[in-house]
Amino acid sequence: MSREKFYITTAISYPNGKPHIGHAYELIATDALARFQRHDGKDVFFLTGTDEHGIKMLQTANREGISARELADRNSYEFKKMATLLNASNDDFIRTTEERHYAASQAIWKAMADRGDIYKSSYAGWYSVRDEAYYGEEETEVRPDNIRYGPQGTPVEWVEEESYFFRLSAYQDKLLALYDNQPDFIGPNERRNEVASFVRSGLKDLSISRTTFDWGVPVPGDDKHVMYVWVDALTNYITALGYPDTSAEKWAYWPAVHIIGKDIVRFHAVYWPAFLMSAGIELPKRVFGHGFLFNRGEKMSKSLGNVVDPFTMVEHYGLDQVRYFLLREVPFGQDGSYSHEAIVNRTNADLANDLGNLAQRSLSMIAKNCNGVVPQRGELADADKAILDQATAALATARKAMAEQGIHHALAAIFAVVAEANRYFAAQEPWALKKTDPARMETVLWTTAEVIRRVGIMCQPFIPGSASKLLDLLAVTERDFVHVDAAHALVSGAPLPAPQPVFPRYVEQAAES
Ligand code: ME8
Questions:
Q1: Ligand 1 and 11: CB distance under 6 A
Q2: Could you tell me which residue ranges the Methionyl-tRNA synthetase anticodon-binding domain spans (predicted)?
Protein backbone atom coordinates (compact mmCIF):
# COMPACT_ATOMS: atom_id res chain seq x y z
CA MET A 1 0.00 0.00 0.00
CA SER A 2 1.45 3.39 -0.87
CA ARG A 3 1.99 5.73 2.05
CA GLU A 4 0.34 9.12 2.30
CA LYS A 5 2.59 11.81 0.85
CA PHE A 6 3.51 14.97 2.70
CA TYR A 7 5.37 17.92 1.21
CA ILE A 8 6.77 20.65 3.43
CA THR A 9 8.98 23.63 2.59
CA THR A 10 10.82 26.47 4.26
CA ALA A 11 11.10 29.85 2.57
CA ILE A 12 14.21 30.03 0.44
CA SER A 13 16.61 32.52 1.99
CA TYR A 14 18.41 35.41 0.32
CA PRO A 15 22.09 34.52 0.37
CA ASN A 16 23.10 38.19 0.49
CA GLY A 17 24.79 37.43 3.79
CA LYS A 18 25.44 34.49 6.06
CA PRO A 19 22.51 32.72 7.68
CA HIS A 20 21.31 34.12 11.00
CA ILE A 21 19.39 32.59 13.85
CA GLY A 22 16.02 33.55 12.25
CA HIS A 23 16.89 31.33 9.29
CA ALA A 24 18.03 28.58 11.65
CA TYR A 25 14.75 28.86 13.56
CA GLU A 26 12.62 28.37 10.45
CA LEU A 27 14.70 25.41 9.30
CA ILE A 28 14.65 23.71 12.70
CA ALA A 29 10.90 24.13 13.07
CA THR A 30 10.21 22.85 9.57
CA ASP A 31 12.58 19.96 10.17
CA ALA A 32 10.67 19.01 13.32
CA LEU A 33 7.40 19.08 11.36
CA ALA A 34 8.91 16.97 8.55
CA ARG A 35 10.48 14.44 10.91
CA PHE A 36 7.27 14.14 12.87
CA GLN A 37 5.30 13.12 9.78
CA ARG A 38 8.06 10.70 8.73
CA HIS A 39 7.97 8.99 12.11
CA ASP A 40 4.20 8.94 11.78
CA GLY A 41 4.48 6.84 8.65
CA LYS A 42 4.11 9.41 5.87
CA ASP A 43 6.22 9.60 2.75
CA VAL A 44 7.73 13.05 3.28
CA PHE A 45 9.50 15.43 0.95
CA PHE A 46 11.14 18.37 2.70
CA LEU A 47 12.62 21.24 0.72
CA THR A 48 14.80 24.21 1.60
CA GLY A 49 17.20 26.36 -0.40
CA THR A 50 18.35 29.81 -1.45
CA ASP A 51 16.69 32.65 -3.39
CA GLU A 52 19.54 34.09 -5.41
CA HIS A 53 18.14 36.68 -7.82
CA GLY A 54 16.89 40.22 -7.30
CA ILE A 55 18.24 43.70 -6.73
CA LYS A 56 19.15 43.11 -3.11
CA MET A 57 21.63 40.41 -4.15
CA LEU A 58 22.97 42.55 -6.96
CA GLN A 59 23.45 45.62 -4.77
CA THR A 60 25.21 43.63 -2.04
CA ALA A 61 27.53 42.06 -4.64
CA ASN A 62 28.30 45.48 -6.12
CA ARG A 63 29.14 46.83 -2.68
CA GLU A 64 31.49 43.91 -2.09
CA GLY A 65 33.05 44.25 -5.55
CA ILE A 66 32.12 40.75 -6.65
CA SER A 67 29.53 39.35 -9.06
CA ALA A 68 26.06 38.40 -7.87
CA ARG A 69 26.84 34.81 -8.81
CA GLU A 70 29.98 34.78 -6.66
CA LEU A 71 28.02 36.20 -3.75
CA ALA A 72 25.30 33.60 -4.25
CA ASP A 73 27.80 30.74 -4.49
CA ARG A 74 29.64 31.83 -1.39
CA ASN A 75 26.64 32.30 0.85
CA SER A 76 24.47 29.53 -0.53
CA TYR A 77 27.26 27.24 0.62
CA GLU A 78 26.90 28.71 4.13
CA PHE A 79 23.17 27.95 4.11
CA LYS A 80 23.88 24.37 3.03
CA LYS A 81 26.46 24.08 5.77
CA MET A 82 23.92 25.39 8.27
CA ALA A 83 21.40 22.74 7.20
CA THR A 84 23.98 20.03 7.91
CA LEU A 85 25.00 21.63 11.20
CA LEU A 86 21.37 21.78 12.36
CA ASN A 87 20.77 18.14 11.43
CA ALA A 88 18.06 19.21 8.98
CA SER A 89 16.54 16.24 7.17
CA ASN A 90 15.75 18.11 3.94
CA ASP A 91 15.45 15.89 0.88
CA ASP A 92 16.67 18.57 -1.53
CA PHE A 93 18.31 21.97 -1.43
CA ILE A 94 17.25 24.21 -4.27
CA ARG A 95 19.19 27.16 -5.66
CA THR A 96 17.23 29.46 -7.91
CA THR A 97 20.24 29.89 -10.21
CA GLU A 98 20.01 26.24 -11.24
CA GLU A 99 19.10 25.19 -14.77
CA ARG A 100 16.05 23.23 -13.60
CA HIS A 101 14.70 26.36 -11.97
CA TYR A 102 15.02 28.51 -15.08
CA ALA A 103 13.03 25.88 -16.97
CA ALA A 104 10.28 25.76 -14.33
CA SER A 105 10.05 29.56 -13.98
CA GLN A 106 9.78 30.07 -17.71
CA ALA A 107 7.18 27.32 -17.93
CA ILE A 108 4.91 28.85 -15.27
CA TRP A 109 5.32 32.25 -16.92
CA LYS A 110 4.19 30.77 -20.23
CA ALA A 111 1.26 29.05 -18.58
CA MET A 112 0.12 32.37 -17.05
CA ALA A 113 0.65 34.14 -20.39
CA ASP A 114 -1.36 31.46 -22.22
CA ARG A 115 -4.20 32.09 -19.78
CA GLY A 116 -4.14 35.74 -20.90
CA ASP A 117 -3.00 36.97 -17.50
CA ILE A 118 0.22 38.72 -18.56
CA TYR A 119 0.42 42.00 -20.49
CA LYS A 120 3.09 44.61 -21.21
CA SER A 121 2.75 48.18 -19.92
CA SER A 122 4.86 50.44 -17.77
CA TYR A 123 5.23 50.58 -14.00
CA ALA A 124 5.46 53.72 -11.95
CA GLY A 125 5.44 53.23 -8.19
CA TRP A 126 7.24 52.43 -4.97
CA TYR A 127 9.63 49.55 -4.47
CA SER A 128 11.47 48.31 -1.39
CA VAL A 129 14.76 46.63 -2.28
CA ARG A 130 15.09 45.17 1.19
CA ASP A 131 11.68 43.50 0.96
CA GLU A 132 11.91 43.06 -2.85
CA ALA A 133 8.33 44.30 -2.80
CA TYR A 134 6.08 46.77 -4.62
CA TYR A 135 3.90 48.88 -2.36
CA GLY A 136 0.92 51.09 -3.04
CA GLU A 137 1.54 54.72 -2.09
CA GLU A 138 -1.10 54.45 0.65
CA GLU A 139 1.00 51.74 2.31
CA THR A 140 4.03 54.03 2.55
CA GLU A 141 4.81 57.03 4.74
CA VAL A 142 7.42 59.75 4.83
CA ARG A 143 9.05 59.87 8.26
CA PRO A 144 10.71 62.83 9.96
CA ASP A 145 14.02 61.80 8.39
CA ASN A 146 12.40 62.70 5.05
CA ILE A 147 12.72 59.14 3.82
CA ARG A 148 9.69 57.22 2.58
CA TYR A 149 9.14 53.82 4.22
CA GLY A 150 7.00 50.81 3.36
CA PRO A 151 4.72 48.89 5.73
CA GLN A 152 7.58 46.69 7.00
CA GLY A 153 9.65 49.72 7.94
CA THR A 154 12.09 49.47 5.04
CA PRO A 155 12.89 52.42 2.71
CA VAL A 156 11.14 52.51 -0.67
CA GLU A 157 12.34 54.04 -3.92
CA TRP A 158 10.47 55.31 -6.96
CA VAL A 159 10.59 52.96 -9.95
CA GLU A 160 9.40 53.82 -13.42
CA GLU A 161 10.02 51.46 -16.32
CA GLU A 162 8.53 49.24 -18.96
CA SER A 163 7.23 46.11 -17.32
CA TYR A 164 5.10 43.03 -17.78
CA PHE A 165 2.09 42.85 -15.51
CA PHE A 166 0.19 39.96 -14.01
CA ARG A 167 -3.60 40.44 -13.82
CA LEU A 168 -3.73 40.07 -10.06
CA SER A 169 -6.88 42.22 -9.92
CA ALA A 170 -8.77 39.45 -11.74
CA TYR A 171 -8.09 37.10 -8.80
CA GLN A 172 -9.44 39.19 -5.95
CA ASP A 173 -12.77 37.38 -5.64
CA LYS A 174 -11.24 33.96 -6.20
CA LEU A 175 -8.71 34.60 -3.43
CA LEU A 176 -11.38 35.78 -1.00
CA ALA A 177 -13.42 32.67 -1.84
CA LEU A 178 -10.32 30.57 -1.19
CA TYR A 179 -9.82 32.06 2.30
CA ASP A 180 -13.51 31.44 3.04
CA ASN A 181 -13.77 27.93 1.64
CA GLN A 182 -10.46 26.70 2.96
CA PRO A 183 -10.20 28.43 6.35
CA ASP A 184 -6.96 26.65 7.21
CA PHE A 185 -5.23 27.82 4.04
CA ILE A 186 -3.45 30.53 6.07
CA GLY A 187 -2.25 30.10 9.64
CA PRO A 188 -2.20 31.33 12.30
CA ASN A 189 -5.55 33.13 12.29
CA GLU A 190 -4.14 36.66 12.75
CA ARG A 191 -2.18 36.19 9.53
CA ARG A 192 -5.30 35.04 7.75
CA ASN A 193 -7.23 38.10 8.85
CA GLU A 194 -4.43 40.46 7.74
CA VAL A 195 -4.24 38.87 4.31
CA ALA A 196 -8.00 38.81 3.80
CA SER A 197 -8.31 42.48 4.70
CA PHE A 198 -5.43 43.37 2.35
CA VAL A 199 -7.16 41.55 -0.51
CA ARG A 200 -10.56 43.00 0.37
CA SER A 201 -9.10 46.50 0.17
CA GLY A 202 -8.53 45.91 -3.56
CA LEU A 203 -5.82 44.26 -5.64
CA LYS A 204 -3.94 46.05 -8.40
CA ASP A 205 -2.17 44.23 -11.20
CA LEU A 206 1.36 43.25 -10.26
CA SER A 207 4.52 44.31 -12.06
CA ILE A 208 6.39 41.05 -12.72
CA SER A 209 9.46 42.04 -14.75
CA ARG A 210 12.36 44.47 -14.66
CA THR A 211 14.56 45.94 -17.40
CA THR A 212 17.13 47.99 -15.47
CA PHE A 213 19.32 44.99 -14.54
CA ASP A 214 19.77 41.45 -15.79
CA TRP A 215 20.30 39.37 -12.63
CA GLY A 216 17.24 37.16 -12.93
CA VAL A 217 15.43 34.62 -15.05
CA PRO A 218 14.91 35.97 -18.58
CA VAL A 219 11.29 36.51 -19.59
CA PRO A 220 10.46 33.96 -22.30
CA GLY A 221 10.49 35.66 -25.70
CA ASP A 222 11.73 39.02 -24.39
CA ASP A 223 15.34 38.97 -23.23
CA LYS A 224 15.27 42.66 -22.36
CA HIS A 225 13.25 41.71 -19.26
CA VAL A 226 14.11 39.56 -16.27
CA MET A 227 11.36 38.22 -14.03
CA TYR A 228 10.51 40.01 -10.80
CA VAL A 229 12.41 37.99 -8.20
CA TRP A 230 9.30 36.81 -6.35
CA VAL A 231 7.87 35.21 -9.50
CA ASP A 232 10.85 32.94 -9.80
CA ALA A 233 11.35 32.60 -6.03
CA LEU A 234 7.86 31.20 -5.38
CA THR A 235 8.22 28.83 -8.31
CA ASN A 236 11.06 27.03 -6.47
CA TYR A 237 8.46 24.97 -4.62
CA ILE A 238 7.36 23.27 -7.83
CA THR A 239 10.75 23.29 -9.57
CA ALA A 240 11.94 20.84 -6.95
CA LEU A 241 9.09 18.46 -7.84
CA GLY A 242 10.04 18.46 -11.51
CA TYR A 243 7.62 21.08 -12.88
CA PRO A 244 6.70 21.43 -15.74
CA ASP A 245 6.83 17.65 -15.95
CA THR A 246 3.78 16.90 -13.86
CA SER A 247 4.01 13.24 -14.80
CA ALA A 248 7.29 13.00 -12.86
CA GLU A 249 7.21 10.75 -9.81
CA LYS A 250 8.01 13.63 -7.47
CA TRP A 251 5.05 15.66 -8.64
CA ALA A 252 2.88 13.38 -6.50
CA TYR A 253 4.13 15.27 -3.41
CA TRP A 254 2.31 18.44 -4.47
CA PRO A 255 0.49 20.31 -2.87
CA ALA A 256 2.72 21.63 -0.10
CA VAL A 257 2.59 23.01 3.40
CA HIS A 258 4.68 26.20 3.27
CA ILE A 259 6.41 27.31 6.48
CA ILE A 260 7.51 30.94 6.20
CA GLY A 261 8.00 34.03 8.35
CA LYS A 262 5.15 36.45 8.97
CA ASP A 263 6.82 39.16 6.84
CA ILE A 264 6.30 37.23 3.62
CA VAL A 265 2.76 35.94 4.05
CA ARG A 266 1.42 38.32 1.39
CA PHE A 267 3.63 36.77 -1.28
CA HIS A 268 2.64 33.24 -0.33
CA ALA A 269 -1.03 33.72 0.39
CA VAL A 270 -1.91 36.25 -2.32
CA TYR A 271 0.54 36.23 -5.23
CA TRP A 272 1.41 32.53 -5.15
CA PRO A 273 -2.13 31.11 -5.18
CA ALA A 274 -3.07 33.63 -7.89
CA PHE A 275 -0.11 32.52 -10.05
CA LEU A 276 -1.04 28.89 -9.49
CA MET A 277 -4.72 29.43 -10.32
CA SER A 278 -3.66 31.20 -13.48
CA ALA A 279 -1.26 28.41 -14.46
CA GLY A 280 -3.88 25.75 -13.68
CA ILE A 281 -1.94 24.19 -10.82
CA GLU A 282 -3.46 22.92 -7.58
CA LEU A 283 -3.05 25.30 -4.62
CA PRO A 284 -0.87 24.68 -1.54
CA LYS A 285 -2.51 22.96 1.44
CA ARG A 286 -1.45 25.60 3.88
CA VAL A 287 0.73 28.65 4.35
CA PHE A 288 1.90 29.08 7.94
CA GLY A 289 3.58 32.35 8.96
CA HIS A 290 5.74 31.91 12.05
CA GLY A 291 6.82 34.80 14.24
CA PHE A 292 10.09 36.66 14.42
CA LEU A 293 12.92 35.97 16.78
CA PHE A 294 14.34 38.86 18.72
CA ASN A 295 17.60 39.04 20.57
CA ARG A 296 16.41 40.17 24.01
CA GLY A 297 13.53 41.85 22.26
CA GLU A 298 15.52 43.66 19.58
CA LYS A 299 14.76 42.96 15.94
CA MET A 300 17.57 41.28 14.12
CA SER A 301 18.45 41.29 10.44
CA LYS A 302 21.36 41.22 8.06
CA SER A 303 20.73 44.81 7.08
CA LEU A 304 20.70 45.97 10.70
CA GLY A 305 23.92 44.09 11.43
CA ASN A 306 22.87 42.55 14.76
CA VAL A 307 22.83 39.02 13.54
CA VAL A 308 23.45 36.06 15.80
CA ASP A 309 25.45 33.34 14.15
CA PRO A 310 23.78 29.93 14.45
CA PHE A 311 27.16 28.22 14.14
CA THR A 312 28.46 29.97 17.26
CA MET A 313 25.26 29.32 19.12
CA VAL A 314 25.26 25.59 18.40
CA GLU A 315 28.91 25.32 19.33
CA HIS A 316 28.25 27.08 22.60
CA TYR A 317 25.03 25.44 23.81
CA GLY A 318 24.89 22.23 21.77
CA LEU A 319 22.62 21.51 18.81
CA ASP A 320 19.73 19.80 20.53
CA GLN A 321 19.79 22.41 23.28
CA VAL A 322 19.29 25.14 20.66
CA ARG A 323 16.66 23.12 18.81
CA TYR A 324 14.77 22.33 22.00
CA PHE A 325 14.91 25.87 23.30
CA LEU A 326 13.60 27.44 20.10
CA LEU A 327 10.81 24.91 19.64
CA ARG A 328 9.66 24.72 23.26
CA GLU A 329 10.08 28.31 24.41
CA VAL A 330 8.66 30.22 21.45
CA PRO A 331 4.99 29.49 20.72
CA PHE A 332 5.16 28.69 17.00
CA GLY A 333 3.32 31.45 15.17
CA GLN A 334 4.20 34.14 17.70
CA ASP A 335 7.29 36.32 18.07
CA GLY A 336 9.87 35.16 20.54
CA SER A 337 12.90 36.43 22.33
CA TYR A 338 16.00 34.58 23.28
CA SER A 339 18.76 35.33 25.68
CA HIS A 340 21.58 33.40 27.28
CA GLU A 341 19.66 33.05 30.56
CA ALA A 342 16.51 31.80 28.85
CA ILE A 343 18.40 29.13 26.89
CA VAL A 344 20.37 27.94 29.91
CA ASN A 345 17.35 27.86 32.21
CA ARG A 346 15.09 26.06 29.78
CA THR A 347 17.57 23.42 28.64
CA ASN A 348 19.03 22.75 32.09
CA ALA A 349 15.55 22.41 33.59
CA ASP A 350 13.90 20.24 30.93
CA LEU A 351 16.73 18.36 29.27
CA ALA A 352 19.52 18.05 31.84
CA ASN A 353 17.36 17.81 34.98
CA ASP A 354 14.01 16.34 34.01
CA LEU A 355 14.77 14.00 31.14
CA GLY A 356 18.52 13.57 31.54
CA ASN A 357 18.54 12.86 35.27
CA LEU A 358 15.57 10.55 35.12
CA ALA A 359 17.25 8.50 32.42
CA GLN A 360 20.59 8.53 34.16
CA ARG A 361 19.22 7.59 37.58
CA SER A 362 16.92 4.84 36.39
CA LEU A 363 19.36 3.33 33.91
CA SER A 364 22.20 3.35 36.44
CA MET A 365 19.99 1.54 38.93
CA ILE A 366 19.12 -1.00 36.26
CA ALA A 367 22.79 -1.48 35.41
CA LYS A 368 23.67 -2.02 39.06
CA ASN A 369 20.68 -3.96 40.31
CA CYS A 370 19.29 -5.82 37.33
CA ASN A 371 22.46 -7.20 35.76
CA GLY A 372 22.31 -4.63 32.97
CA VAL A 373 19.24 -6.18 31.35
CA VAL A 374 15.68 -4.84 31.03
CA PRO A 375 14.14 -5.39 34.52
CA GLN A 376 11.50 -8.00 35.21
CA ARG A 377 8.10 -6.52 34.76
CA GLY A 378 5.74 -7.84 37.43
CA GLU A 379 2.07 -7.03 37.66
CA LEU A 380 1.51 -3.34 37.00
CA ALA A 381 0.11 -1.18 39.79
CA ASP A 382 -2.32 1.67 39.08
CA ALA A 383 0.48 4.23 39.33
CA ASP A 384 2.50 2.33 36.70
CA LYS A 385 -0.46 2.08 34.37
CA ALA A 386 -1.28 5.77 34.81
CA ILE A 387 2.16 7.01 33.78
CA LEU A 388 2.37 4.56 30.88
CA ASP A 389 -1.05 5.67 29.67
CA GLN A 390 -0.09 9.32 29.93
CA ALA A 391 2.92 8.63 27.72
CA THR A 392 0.77 6.98 25.06
CA ALA A 393 -1.85 9.72 25.27
CA ALA A 394 0.82 12.38 24.67
CA LEU A 395 1.30 10.99 21.18
CA ALA A 396 -2.31 11.72 20.26
CA THR A 397 -1.99 15.24 21.67
CA ALA A 398 1.28 15.83 19.82
CA ARG A 399 -0.15 14.50 16.57
CA LYS A 400 -3.10 16.85 16.75
CA ALA A 401 -0.87 19.82 17.63
CA MET A 402 1.68 19.11 14.89
CA ALA A 403 -1.08 18.85 12.27
CA GLU A 404 -1.68 22.56 12.88
CA GLN A 405 1.97 23.50 13.48
CA GLY A 406 1.50 23.77 17.24
CA ILE A 407 5.06 22.59 17.85
CA HIS A 408 5.29 24.03 21.37
CA HIS A 409 2.02 22.30 22.35
CA ALA A 410 3.38 18.97 21.17
CA LEU A 411 6.57 19.42 23.18
CA ALA A 412 4.63 20.59 26.22
CA ALA A 413 2.55 17.39 26.16
CA ILE A 414 5.65 15.20 25.83
CA PHE A 415 7.54 16.98 28.59
CA ALA A 416 4.51 16.89 30.88
CA VAL A 417 5.01 13.11 30.78
CA VAL A 418 8.66 13.57 31.71
CA ALA A 419 7.73 15.78 34.67
CA GLU A 420 5.11 13.27 35.80
CA ALA A 421 7.57 10.39 35.39
CA ASN A 422 9.94 12.21 37.75
CA ARG A 423 7.18 12.51 40.32
CA TYR A 424 6.34 8.84 39.83
CA PHE A 425 9.98 7.82 40.29
CA ALA A 426 10.37 9.93 43.43
CA ALA A 427 7.11 8.63 44.92
CA GLN A 428 7.86 4.95 44.21
CA GLU A 429 11.34 5.19 45.76
CA PRO A 430 12.86 2.23 43.90
CA TRP A 431 16.10 2.69 45.92
CA ALA A 432 14.13 1.89 49.09
CA LEU A 433 12.29 -1.02 47.41
CA LYS A 434 15.64 -2.58 46.70
CA LYS A 435 15.71 -3.87 50.26
CA THR A 436 12.01 -4.21 51.03
CA ASP A 437 10.58 -5.52 47.75
CA PRO A 438 13.11 -6.13 44.98
CA ALA A 439 10.48 -7.53 42.62
CA ARG A 440 8.47 -4.33 42.91
CA MET A 441 11.68 -2.33 42.40
CA GLU A 442 12.16 -4.12 39.10
CA THR A 443 8.61 -3.32 38.01
CA VAL A 444 9.09 0.36 38.88
CA LEU A 445 12.38 0.46 36.97
CA TRP A 446 10.79 -1.33 34.04
CA THR A 447 7.93 1.17 34.00
CA THR A 448 10.32 4.11 34.14
CA ALA A 449 12.48 2.72 31.34
CA GLU A 450 9.39 2.02 29.27
CA VAL A 451 8.15 5.59 29.73
CA ILE A 452 11.59 6.82 28.65
CA ARG A 453 11.34 4.61 25.57
CA ARG A 454 8.00 6.13 24.60
CA VAL A 455 9.20 9.66 25.31
CA GLY A 456 12.44 9.00 23.42
CA ILE A 457 10.55 7.95 20.32
CA MET A 458 8.32 11.01 20.50
CA CYS A 459 11.29 13.36 21.05
CA GLN A 460 13.05 12.34 17.84
CA PRO A 461 11.56 15.04 15.58
CA PHE A 462 12.67 17.78 17.95
CA ILE A 463 16.02 16.61 19.31
CA PRO A 464 16.95 13.85 16.88
CA GLY A 465 20.56 13.29 17.97
CA SER A 466 19.89 13.06 21.71
CA ALA A 467 16.68 11.08 21.30
CA SER A 468 18.55 8.57 19.22
CA LYS A 469 21.25 8.22 21.91
CA LEU A 470 18.56 7.74 24.52
CA LEU A 471 16.93 4.99 22.47
CA ASP A 472 20.34 3.38 21.95
CA LEU A 473 20.70 3.16 25.74
CA LEU A 474 17.46 1.18 25.82
CA ALA A 475 18.56 -0.96 22.85
CA VAL A 476 15.41 0.13 21.02
CA THR A 477 15.46 -0.50 17.28
CA GLU A 478 11.82 0.13 16.34
CA ARG A 479 11.55 3.89 16.50
CA ASP A 480 8.44 5.02 14.69
CA PHE A 481 5.28 6.30 16.30
CA VAL A 482 3.45 3.02 15.71
CA HIS A 483 5.97 1.56 18.12
CA VAL A 484 5.02 3.83 21.01
CA ASP A 485 2.25 1.47 22.12
CA ALA A 486 2.39 -1.32 24.70
CA ALA A 487 2.71 -4.00 22.02
CA HIS A 488 6.28 -2.83 21.39
CA ALA A 489 7.23 -2.37 25.04
CA LEU A 490 10.66 -3.22 26.43
CA VAL A 491 11.15 -6.95 26.87
CA SER A 492 12.34 -8.03 30.32
CA GLY A 493 15.72 -9.72 30.22
CA ALA A 494 16.91 -8.03 27.02
CA PRO A 495 20.51 -6.84 27.39
CA LEU A 496 21.19 -3.10 27.69
CA PRO A 497 24.40 -1.20 26.98
CA ALA A 498 26.20 0.64 29.80
CA PRO A 499 24.35 3.87 30.67
CA GLN A 500 25.87 7.17 29.66
CA PRO A 501 24.72 10.74 30.24
CA VAL A 502 22.83 12.12 27.23
CA PHE A 503 22.10 15.73 28.22
CA PRO A 504 25.08 17.62 29.64
CA ARG A 505 24.23 20.39 32.05
CA TYR A 506 25.25 23.88 30.95
CA VAL A 507 27.70 25.24 33.49
CA GLU A 508 28.53 28.94 33.50
CA GLN A 509 32.21 29.56 32.75
CA ALA A 510 32.66 31.61 35.92
CA ALA A 511 31.08 28.96 38.09
CA GLU A 512 33.36 26.31 36.64
CA SER A 513 36.65 27.80 37.79
O1 ME8 B 1 12.27 36.50 2.64
N2 ME8 B 1 13.07 35.51 12.93
O3 ME8 B 1 14.37 35.58 2.41
P4 ME8 B 1 15.03 36.01 3.80
C5 ME8 B 1 12.38 34.54 12.34
N6 ME8 B 1 13.96 35.10 -0.11
N7 ME8 B 1 12.35 34.33 11.01
C8 ME8 B 1 13.06 35.17 10.25
C9 ME8 B 1 13.82 36.22 10.80
C10 ME8 B 1 13.81 36.37 12.22
N11 ME8 B 1 14.48 37.32 12.84
N12 ME8 B 1 14.41 36.89 9.77
C13 ME8 B 1 14.03 36.25 8.64
C14 ME8 B 1 13.12 35.92 1.98
N15 ME8 B 1 13.21 35.23 8.91
C16 ME8 B 1 12.78 35.44 0.59
C17 ME8 B 1 11.84 34.26 0.68
S18 ME8 B 1 10.39 32.29 -0.41
C19 ME8 B 1 9.84 31.89 -1.93
C20 ME8 B 1 11.45 33.66 -0.64
C21 ME8 B 1 12.58 34.31 7.95
O22 ME8 B 1 16.41 35.47 3.75
C23 ME8 B 1 11.76 35.05 6.92
O24 ME8 B 1 10.50 35.38 7.44
O25 ME8 B 1 14.82 37.43 4.08
C26 ME8 B 1 11.69 34.04 5.80
O27 ME8 B 1 10.65 33.11 6.02
C28 ME8 B 1 13.05 33.33 5.89
O29 ME8 B 1 13.58 33.65 7.19
C30 ME8 B 1 14.02 33.79 4.82
O31 ME8 B 1 14.17 35.20 4.89
A1: yes
A2: 374-507
